[in-house]
Write a structure and sequence with these properties.
This is PASTA domain, binds beta-lactams. It contains 4 helices and 16 strands. By secondary structure, it is of the alpha+beta class.
Length: 257
Amino acid sequence: MSDLKTGLKKIGIHLLVILGILFGLLLVFFKIYLPGYTHHGESVTVPDLEGFDYEEVRSYLNDRGLALEISPDSGFVAEADPLVVLKQNPKPGAKVKEDRKIYVTLNARNAPLIRMPNLVNTPLKNAQEILQNFGLVRGDIVYVPDIGHNVVLEQKYRGRDIKEGFEIPKGSQIDLVVGDGMGNQILEMPNVIGMDDVEAEFLILGSGLSMGNITYVETDTVPKGTVVKQLPPAGLDMKTGERVDVWVSELSEEINF
């Protein structure tokens, strides 16, 4: 009986020793080894990488215990150098653990090709929006005589006409030939003095000219609504679309005392 108790006592002591050792190992693992391995409580501030070259970024991140990962989707900005960082994730200023991967999008070495849109017969304002949406740059604007005011007549790339659908690099500069609204047709300025203002306007517009300012002047010598002066004067050579200013009579009011 005493031998049994002695044996059980020894077993109990061994179990206690084993449990103590196990507890100690677990304490060391969770309190010392694991925090040291995962850098528990330590963080690194993500730097702002945008605009820096790929090689500079890789060296910079390595020195700070961060890893660089290139995003498979590259971008393209014509004004930026090839292989500079355009975007990054996480954003600058974020707190991350060491060895965290920083994903970056690089500017492509070569511009992607896009199809040239059709800008002919499009108002200049709309043409500029279309170019921007396609990633193209509006270049020089050359005005030529044409009745279409601010309407695109030709689209040019590197000095040559470029047709719709032609492939060009994104970011290319497109020059536009635009109408000045004047036209190149020469006509003689009609005489509208003495006409009714409505008839005068009808003749001016029908001649391919445009109405300018209408100034009313007081007079008691001609009927109300009669054109008494015009500028430019009659007989002058005019271009299509040019403005004509007229002065129209209105009766002066008599003041009775």
